[in-house]
Amino acid sequence: MSLLSGLPRRAVAELVDAGGIRLDGRPVTTRSRIVQGGQRLEVDVVHEEIDVPVPDASVVFRVVHEDADLVVIDKPAGLVVHHGAGHHGGTLVDGLLARFPDLAGLAAAGGGDPDRPGIVHRLDKGTSGLLVVARTPEAYRALAKQFRAHSAGRRYLVLAAGTVEADEGTVDAPIGRSTRQRTRMAVTTRGKQARTEYRVTERFSTPVPCTLLEASLDTGRTHQVRVHLAAIGHPVIGDERYGRSVARPQAVMAELSPGRMFLHAFRLSLDHPSEGRVTWEAPLPEDLARVLASLAS
Fold first, then answer.
1. pLDDT of amino acid 32
2. Which candidate, 232, 195, 231, places its Cα nearest to that of 215?
3. Alpha-carbon distances of 110 from 118, 144, 190, rounded to whole Å
4. Is 276 left (phi over 0), alpha (psi -120 to 50) or beta?
5. Secondary-structure percent of the chain, ordered helix, strand, coil, rounded to 5
């Protein structure tokens, strides 16, 4: 479909998720689909100019590691990873281009799309933590392969609303685009396989019941941790989209800015293109540390 529409594969994938591709009048729900002769394929194509990022040295982020192959950064909450709807500047990509000018030519060499060179995975705006960026086409392909195969290990620290009774557990439920609100994800039988494992680190009862978890992703669906925890009745503290009022108890929200969630990608493990398996960790940000300090068991 990329060949037929002239769109990059990423854009086609987003169209599939949004229900914008139909085969014989029915939405295509998988990105791999065999089309037979005589079938009618419809694609909702909106031709827009590519929103090219511009180097911006004012974008603040911490570099955890850098070498000739890749960069690992600790993304602060509130920073959008790349350009998109409503975000046409001041993104992490703009900041990366200012600090690492070699990324500017990466897309043309096969290292990602022009609007997100080197980007192989994302973190939500309200999520902080570790994110890896490729610096060469070879590193991009190697890292992208790991994230597709879910062999890159990602662990999150999460403060969930309510008391999670089991010391550890697994949420194994498919995630797909919500049929009611297309900007939301949901647990749905029409979704893609998604699996999240969690372990209780500490339970708190005052000023409100909540539970600190370590969560790991066996898959990498959009908003996976948020959707899965909300599905079992324990949304991420601060998550306005999936938690509503239960995830924003006033007694613990004073330290969190609007849109900030208690969700931090604190550990990242992957196979470095030239150094083998490597693991990085990022400490809990100050705002989340202050929230924990305000809680009592």
1. 67
2. 195
3. 9, 12, 32
4. left
5. 20, 30, 50
The candidate with the shortest Cα–Cα distance to 131, out of 227, 52, 65, is 65
Compute the distance between CA of residue 98 and CA of residue 58 in angstroms, rounded to an integer: 9
Q: Which residues on neighbouring strands pair with residue 177, listed in sequence order?
A: 185
Dist. CA 37–CA 125, nearest whole Å: 43
198 CB neighbour count, 10 Å cutoff: 25
- Residue pointed to by tokens 């969190």: 256
Cβ atoms within 10 Å of 241's Cβ, excluding its own: 20
Q: Where does the chain have alpha helices with state H?
A: 2-5, 9-17, 92-99, 137-149, 224-231, 240-243, 286-293
pLDDT reading at 48 higher than 90: no
Residue found by looking up tokens 């195969």 in the block: 149
- Could you tell me if 297 and 262 are in contact, meaning their C-beta atoms sit under 8 angstroms apart? no
Cis upstream peptide for 209 (omega within 30°): no
In this prediction, residue 89 carries a pLDDT of 82
d(Cα 22, Cα 28) in Å, to the nearest integer?
Answer: 5
Confidence band, pLDDT 50/70/90 cuts, at residue 50 = low
Q: Averaged over 235-239, what is the pLDDT?
A: 95
| Distances 220 to 58, 123, 215, 217, 227 between C-alpha atoms, Å | 30, 11, 12, 6, 12
pLDDT of 34: 75
| Secondary structure letter of residue 38 according to DSSP | T
Is the pLDDT assigned to residue 107 strictly greater than 80?
yes
Active site residues: 124
Between vectors from CA 291 to CA 290 and to CA 294, what angle results, nearest 5°?
Answer: 90
